[in-house]
Structure formats: structure tokens, C-alpha cells
């Protein structure tokens, strides 16, 4: 049984104009110790999906359907006591903005100690808490842990703050770490260091990670399996190498082509058109308005997921050979 299994998840947001139908029945899973990547343009619903797993969706969100199974139990229907156990011991998430999760008016020491205390079942002495904090800061490759502990967030660089966030996340991430564009707000060399550090940590701890990143070149070497999202749907998934070598969904093909090539073969063009409005999304395939291969059926029906090669799936009618598609 996978560690996490998301089934037909539908999430919307209430806004002044009506209901934004963002996640349109997405399915995905994460195995134990697996490194999974999610890619897709801005606003396609990546963060929404992750916040649903952590049960931290905004107040105006609407859960319209679906399940998120953890070890067979639906996270979305757990009571607070059951879910608190998961937050304290199993899952953690780090965000794009390294400052967002840190409180500016407290030192790192105060915040870190609180998290360690919150996550422990036993009463810990101050020395034990301190020891644990230092050990985790070292794992996050922060030199001089004492100085870091005495700092306020504003006294640390962006890269250091993100390492502190990683150290704090490790208190609870005993099974799953969700990293939502953890390096995007930092400069490129620091982003690279942060991703390498995450890889090393999750492999050493033998935990799972879901990594969201716009840096396709990096994610390619980081994750075992990848999901491609477009406008609240998963359009393609499979082992990373297969998806990059042999992208099947027209959206994935365009997305991979729009990455600047280091060989400098001209300027990438980006994908023409824009993500459709979530107020009135297309009825069939949500990519239909931008797809160079759009057919009549694409406007009418939601494409099922077809297995295009072993363990590699694409939700696109181009791969319909008369049989019904298989839903993962
Ligand atoms: N609280 C909210 N209220 C209304 N709309 C929201 C809310 N949160 C997110 N959205 C909208 O939902 C859509 C998906 O947002 P989400 O943040 O999940 O996308 P994303 O794929 O993470 O994008 P990015 O790559 O920019 O982080 C966007 O159109 C966004 O504007
Ligand atoms: Mg996001």
C-alpha cells in the first residue's frame, strides 16, 4: 500500500465572482521512501494539492470530493486528534518563502524548542531539546548552531533561513517531507545547494518527499517519478527518465521544450496562450484551448489516463486506441 494515495480530489475556492473549480479530480500516490516531483505552470494547483494533504487549505476553500489515504485512512476525514499525530510525527512541509514560516519576533531557539516540545510524547529536559535542535541544524548543514539559535530570522540570509526551516521540518517529517519550491526565492546556486541537501537528507532518513519545482533541469536528477499538472488536472505521470525522454502529453512536450537549453539554441518560446479561468473551465480536456492537436472529442469529454508505456500515463485522447483508458 502506498504511503499516500490521493483519489479523485476536487478542491475549489469561493471568491466574489463565484466558485473557482481548481483541482478537478486528481489522482496520485507516493510510495514509502519514494521521491516524487510535481511540475506545471504557475496557478495549476500544485500548492493547493499539497495544502490539502497537510490540511492547511485557506478558509475560503471548498472540498468538493475525493480522498487522501494515509496507510488506508482518509486524512480529510480524520478527527483532530488523529491528524495531530500525523502533524507531530509523520509529515512536514516547507514553503517557497523561507521567511513565511518563521516568526520575526522570536529567536530561532524559541521557535525551534517549541516545535521539538510539541512533537514529543515524553517530557523532554531543556538539555535534551537543545541537543536535538543542534543535531538537526547540523543535519541541515548549518555551521555554528549556537549562533543560529540565538539569531532572529532577519539576521539570517535567505539560504540560512531555508536551512533552518528544513531542520525544523525534520522534527516531524519521519515519513513524508513536502517541499514546495524550496529554492525558488533564493539565487540559483543556493537553490541548487538546498535541493542537494534535501536529497541527501531524505535518502539518509529513508523518508518520502514530494518536491515541487519549476527547475526542470534539477528535478530531473532528483526524483524517481514525476507528475505533470495542468489547470487543476494531472496530465501525465511516470518514471522521471521516461517522462523527460519521451513526453507524451502535448502539454508536457511544450513545457519541456520551453526550458532554456544550456546549449544556447535560441530563445525558448514559452507555451502560447494562458491557463483557462477556473470559474468556467473547459468541459473536456482543460488543455483544449491551447493544444496544437485538439480534436472534437477533447472539447466534449475529460480524457482518461492511458498507459502509454510501462508505468507511464498520459491523459490525452491521442492515445485512445479504441479501448477504454485506465484510471490509475
Ligand atoms: N485562497 C484562495 N482563494 C482564491 N483562489 C485561490 C486561493 N488559493 C489559490 N487560489 C487560486 O487557485 C489556483 C491554484 O493555485 P495554487 O497556488 O495551488 O497554484 P500553484 O500551481 O501552486 O502555482 P505557483 O506555481 O504559482 O505556486 C490559482 O488560480 C490561485 O489563484
Ligand atoms: Mg505554488
How would you describe what is shown here?
- There is one protein chain.
- The chain has 328 residues and is of the alpha/beta class.
- The chain has a domain at 4-89 and 224-319: P-loop containing nucleotide triphosphate hydrolases (Rossmann fold), CATH 3.40.50.300.
- The chain is 32% helix and 23% strand.
- The protein contains eleven helices and twelve strands.
- The chain has helices spanning 46-54, 80-89, 108-119, 126-139, 145-149, 158-172, 188-205, 216-219, 240-245, 250-257, 296-300, and strands at residues 4-15, 18-30, 35-39, 61-70, 73-74, 91-94, 176-180, 208-212, 225-230, 233-239, 306-309, 312-314.
- The strands form two sheets. The chain has an eight-stranded mixed beta sheet with strand order 6-7-8-3-9-10-12-11, with helices on both faces. Strands 2-1-4-5 form a four-stranded antiparallel beta sheet, covered by helices on one side.
- A hairpin with a 2-residue loop joins strand 9 (225-230) and strand 10 (233-239).
- Helix 3 (108-119) crosses helix 4 and helix 3 (108-119) packs parallel to helix 6 (158-172).
- 38% of the residues are buried.
- Adenosine-5'-triphosphate is lined by residues 13, 15, 20, 22, 42-48, 58, 60, 278.
